[in-house]
Write a structure and sequence with these properties.
Pfam family, one: BPD_transp_1
Structural class: mainly alpha
Number of strands: 0
Subcellular location: Cell membrane
Shape: globular
Helix content: over 70%
Family: Belongs to the binding-protein-dependent transport system permease family.
GO cellular component, one term: plasma membrane
InterPro entries: MetI-like, MetI-like_sf
Distance between the termini: 23 Å
Length: 244
């Protein structure tokens, strides 16, 4: 039923889009068939697959970096009051700094290169992960901590059987919210300073006032990210919450 409801809502959306485009100026809002034709044409000449692949690679690298550092930072903040007091303000500053500002500064300080692009995306995502993981680390069950002390768990056993099982739902939540944030920021980073990728392509076609191409690239990459969430992150979320 859930799948049927989604398909019906998608059909209604496409019908509404088709109806509005029929009355709007074609150049301002192309019909779904025109967008589909562009996607197929761009896929045949290889540009679409190349740009989507480049952007996915940037998302993956920055995502792994931000998740790794964010998880460690969040656990440290949640477990240590001193660390939380020292780093809370810098964390809030970065968290509330606009993504555009961080991206521009990364390009100014590191140059218009791939390193700056990855750093900009990772810095934009890292505080979000750290904040979520901090809340998870603060809420660890004291009963399990007492049990670990009683049975004299070593550090590895404590991490594997006490810490990680309790933090897994927070990790998945951070991953799901973070990846949706990361791919949007990657497009901004590419638009501002990279010679390839979906953001670059959207900016290129924007300069040509080609709305069909802009919508086409946006829909393709949005579909890819939704597929990653539905096929990977949602099942993972259900798996870590199965005990409930």
């Amino acid at each position: 039923m859930a799948l049927l409801a989604r398909l019906v809502s998608l059909a209604v959306l496409l019908a509404l889009w088709q109806g509005i485009s029929a009355y709007a100026e074609m150049r301002s809002l192309p019909a779904p068939s025109a967008v589909l034709a562009f996607i197929l044409r761009e896929a045949r000449n290889g540009d679409l697959l190349f740009n989507v692949g480049v952007t996915l690679a940037r998302v993956a690298v920055s995502f792994v970096i931000a998740m790794s550092l964010g998880v460690l930072l969040g656990i440290a903040l949640g477990r240590s009051r001193l660390a939380d007091r020292l780093l809370d303000t810098p964390l809030l500053v970065v968290l509330n700094t606009p993504a555009l500002v961080i991206t521009v500064l990364a390009y100014v300080w590191l140059g218009l290169n791939e390193t700056a692009a990855i750093v900009a995306v990772a810095l934009n995502k890292l505080p979000n992960v750290a904040v979520i993981m901090r809340e998870g680390a603060r809420g660890l069950d004291p009963g399990l901590e007492e049990m670990a002390t009683t049975y004299r768990f070593d550090r590895r056993t404590w991490i594997a059987h006490v810490l990680l099982p309790q933090l897994q739902p927070f990790m998945v939540a951070a991953a799901r919210s973070g990846i949706s944030l990361a791919w949007k920021i990657v497009l901004v980073v590419e638009l501002l300073g990279r010679p390839n990728g979906v953001g670059f392509a959207i900016n290129y076609y924007f300069t040509l006032f080609d709305v069909t191409a802009v919508i086409g690239y946006s829909l393709v990459f949005m579909s890819v990210m939704l597929a990653i969430d539905a096929l990977l992150l949602q099942p993972l979320d259900a798996h870590v919450r199965r005990w409930r």
